[in-house]
Design goal:
3 helices, alpha+beta, four-stranded antiparallel β-sheet, about 190 residues, Immunoglobulin-like, 8 strands
Length: about 190
């Protein structure tokens, strides 16, 4: 979360938290347990509502931040997916655009599990000028026969004045415990 996002979130939440504290102090000492319970549930509902509002604001700010940093007509995104490969353990993926490393990611057990269940990882978002470009994606992992297995794909594409999205997928179509990585454009 950027410092601007934190500041805006705090500015929005502080008056609401102070109002909640003031309301809690208004409860008289002679309030019944039932009334107190009702007030606590009401306060809990308000806190949950504030948390949801803060999450929504954070999501909106993140979207605005991405749009400001990566204008739509120059945006490039790369996503990684992986087939269910129970005998393959993914370690990392490196991504280069026009010879420059733009992403290097080592996968946690949770991320690997999500990929195996059909999840997609946005491995890169950035700006790219129009014209011809080359993407090179390489992954490393462990197979039953090779503890240092790796594979690479090179993908040439043309960037135009609109967003470009590329999907990388790790699969073992031949079922020979030698997964391959493929690349394709999303149209």
């Amino acid at each position: 979360m950027t410092s601007i996002t934190r500041i805006i979130t705090l500015l929005l939440l502080c008056p609401l938290m102070v109002a909640g504290i003031g309301h809690a102090q208004e409860i008289s000492a002679g309030a019944t347990a039932q009334t107190l319970r009702g007030e606590l549930f009401s306060l809990d509902d308000k806190v949950q509502s504030l948390q949801k509002s803060a999450a929504d604001i954070n999501r909106d700010l993140t979207i605005l931040e991405e749009e400001a940093q990566f204008p739509e007509k120059s945006r490039i995104s790369a996503f990684l997916g992986m087939d269910h490969l129970p005998r393959f353990d993914l370690h990392s993926v490196d991504l280069k655009l026009d010879g420059k490393t733009v992403s290097a990611h080592a996968y946690t057990p949770e991320e690997k599990s999500a990929l195996r269940r059909g999840g997609m990882h946005r491995i890169h978002i950035g700006k790219l000028s129009t014209g011809e470009h080359r993407l090179v994606a390489a992954f490393t992992g462990k197979t039953p026969t090779d503890p240092q297995y790796s594979n690479t794909v090179s993908f040439n594409f043309r960037k135009e004045q609109k967003p470009k999205a590329i999907v990388l997928n790790i699969s073992d179509l031949l079922q020979d415990d030698m997964p391959e990585i493929t690349a394709r454009e999303i149209r």
